[in-house]
Amino acid sequence: MTASNIITKASGERVPFSAHKLENSLKRAGAAAPVIDEIVKKVTNSLFEGITTREIYHIAFELLKNKTSSSAAKYKLKHAIMELGPSGFPFEKYFAERLKHQGFKTKVDQVVQGHCVSHEIDVIAEKGEKYFMVECKFHNQTGFVCDVKIPLYIQSRFKDVEYSLNRMPDQNSKFHQGWVVTNTRFSSDAIQYGNCVGLHLVGWDHPHNGSLRDQIDQSGLYPLTCLTTLRDEEKASLLSAGIVLSKEFTHNQAPLSKIGISPERITAIVKESSEICAGGLR
């Protein structure tokens, strides 16, 4: 193994470069086999000692964007989620919108009275006999890990609220559960604790076949920050207006016109939106 095969992760850890992981991420984005082979070869030839995973991502993203914008949009999903900041509120709204598309009635940024004190809850989701209280932990930097202190804290808040809910006639027969949702990762202790107490954890890569990344890919509900045809300032304006899903533009282009985007560019944005949303379980 040569020095140029060693790369630096966001955490600072130095590991061998994995062409297989790059291939899988490009395949997940829907890139064709010849395109994948070409990009992996060019990225491999661009490696130097200590190159960061972020630098590798940018090289691959630009190469993919020159081939197909819709695959590039999906490839940048993790970074697009981080662009929902810096406050984190767009991330809460985005997750609430995803639950709404699953048939839940949702409320964002609610104050709920517990047995001891009141609590600010990021998202409340209800459907039938299910009542979920969701805490969204958003981070706009890579390498962050949610440790066990976070689910410990959220579980104590949830139990305080649950005690009060169980005393209400319209709630005592419902299934109540606390959730912690993050765009990064959980530590092994956090996952172990969540499993032990019945706290539902959703992270970037957890749980298997139900992670945040899996749910987005399966549903086709990509954030508008994925779109390569939108400029940064346009994304910021749309997020400020409460729009978070790229899917919105496939049937309503008014928000795009309102912020001054030309008809020609709107056509390109709608085309990219339709392509990245296609194939999900909407």
Commentary on this structure:
By secondary structure, this protein is an alpha/beta fold. The termini are far apart. Among the domains are: 3-67, no CATH class; 89-219, Trna Endonuclease, Chain: A, domain 1, CATH 3.40.1350. The strands form three sheets. Strands 3-4-5-7-9 form a five-stranded mixed sheet, with helices on both faces. The protein has a two-stranded antiparallel ribbon with strand order 1-2. Strands 6-8 form a two-stranded parallel sheet. It has helices at residues 19-28, 33-46, 53-65, 69-75, 77-82, 89-100, 149-165, 188-197, 212-219, 232-240, 254-258, 263-277, and strands spanning 6-8, 14-16, 105-113, 118-127, 130-137, 145-146, 175-182, 185-186, 200-202.
Largest sheet, if any? 5 strands, mixed
What characteristic shape results from the CA principal axes? globular
Structural class: alpha/beta
Strand content: 15-25%
Which CATH class of the domain at 89-219?
Answer: Alpha Beta
Which percent bin holds the helix content? 40-55%
Poorly predicted segments: none
Task: Give the termini separation.
Answer: 45 Å
Helix and strand sequence: EEHHHHHHEEEEHEEHEHHHH
Radius of gyration, taken over Cα atoms and rounded to an integer in Å: 21 Å
Stated plainly, the CATH topology of the domain at 89-219 is called: Trna Endonuclease, Chain: A, domain 1
The count of DSSP E runs of length 2 or more, i.e. the number of strands, is 9
Q: Please name the CATH architecture of the domain at 89-219.
A: 3-Layer(aba) Sandwich
Q: What is the number of helices?
A: 12
Whole-number average pLDDT?
92
**Sheet with the most strands: spatial strand order:** 3-4-5-7-9
